[in-house]
Amino acid sequence: MHFPFQKFLVCAGTVLALTSSAASAQRRKAKPAAKPAPAAAAAPVPAPVSDSVALRRIFDEALLRGESYENLRYLTGNIGARLSGSPQAQLAVEWGKTTMEKAKFDRVYLQEVMVPHWVRGSKERGEIVGNKDKGIKVPICALGGSIGTGGKLKAGVVEVHSLDEVRNLPEAAVKGKFVFYNRPFNDALIEPGAAYGGAVDQRALGAVEAAKKGAVGALVRSMTSARDDFPHTGTMRPATIPGAALSTNAADKLSQLLKANADLQFELEMECIALPDEKSYNVVGEIKGSKYPDEVITVGGHLDSWDLAQGAHDDGTGCVQSIEALRLLRVAGFKPERTIRAVLFMNEENGTRGGNEYARLAAANKEIHLAAIESDGGGFTPRGFTVEGDAATVAKLAKLAPLLAPYHAAEVTAGHSGTDIEPLQEAVHPKALIGYKCDSQRYFDIHHTAADTFDKVNRRELELGGASMASLIYLLSKYGL
């Protein structure tokens, strides 16, 4: 029914219909209406926060209640060195799975992968032997994957500074001798990683090239600028002769003595051996995306380490930071729009089988990977990120970088991302492969040595790194690429 001149007045829950005629009578007849039952309180809707506030929340959680440092303390102190195939590597897998489950990720699972099982054996022995068999013992270690010496191996030494130098030497100058590769880091380079890249070919391929000329073994200067007595191990290509690393002090001593006596000899004894492959696992934890669950952002580090120390900076820090990145987002109250995964890759150091298997499974499952982030440069002070992607992708990430400027993690440059995530490029073509970049000036002092221990890690630096990675994931999940 329609009343063209009617007015409605609502007051204290009573509705009075008033008309121009008989208003007073209407007032006498009207009765107050019953008050309606109070409506149930609606669930509070979280107020949206700005990106800067969100990142501040992440960093506050990391610095005040971060768990990376204590997780690393347990991994390095209770498990320690965890070379692929070892019992300690299996303990690390179990630790990783339990730690992710305690962090209450949506899903935690293992990816089976067969890995190499190389064993160093008893401590290696190296000695420079001069006139009248007078010897000088020197710090030395087998390179990963080397064969043993089958007892004591004693021979003359020829010093070189490059693979090409060996290739150009006549066989007679090399046959029956040790080839001693003594090319140092280029200390003029600002980035130590560039110096490492410029020297590491002699470690990887030195024994292979020396064997072609009839050498009995390869001795390699350790991959570092530091002058100390810590030999640095690292993987070498399979060769028919043994390969060992000398500490930088030992390399300097050998070079000096060779100049005085070209006929001196070197005696080496190593008992390393390769055993059959072992079953191991990548450890994967994920938080499902709220809006684009089929798009994946991976963040990871490698769970294995060399066997000389605790594997703290290489790469225990990357593992705990990857777990922490997801935990920070969850406890800070953010539900990522895209699915994010923390992956602890197995066997980066001497085979990259875990990274290859993760990529293979991603392709087999037809997964869409937006981006992958890797932390494998130590747990030092954050600086930013390196990116492998097209120019537009690098530019888009650079536009997000100012949000990280207050935390000194805003450097975004084109560059290498990480060994374990590289296989994803061919397998599923993510838009970006990203490397966590921290201050690397001290990294190669301890890289692959007995000095890579928990006490070398600073708590604040470590927690800041995890927060930087979580912040980038937050932005990538929200804005995509």
TrEMBL record:
Q: Which residues cross the membrane?
A: none
Per UniProt, subcellular location reads as: Endoplasmic reticulum; Golgi apparatus; Lysosome; Secreted
Q: Which InterPro entries match?
A: CPQ, Peptidase_M28
Could you name the domain of life of the organism this protein comes from? Bacteria
Q: Give the Peptidase M28 domain ranges.
A: 282-464
Q: Where is the signal peptide?
A: 1-25
Does the record's keyword annotation contain Endoplasmic reticulum? yes
UniProt keyword Endoplasmic reticulum, yes or no: yes
Keywords on record: Carboxypeptidase, Endoplasmic reticulum, Glycoprotein, Golgi apparatus, Hydrolase, Lysosome, Metal-binding, Metalloprotease, Protease, Secreted, Signal, Zinc, Zymogen
* Pfam families assigned: Peptidase_M28
Q: What is annotated about its quaternary structure and interactions?
A: Homodimer. The monomeric form is inactive while the homodimer is active.
Q: What is this protein called?
A: Carboxypeptidase Q
The root-end lineage is: Bacteria, Pseudomonadati, Bacteroidota, Cytophagia, Cytophagales
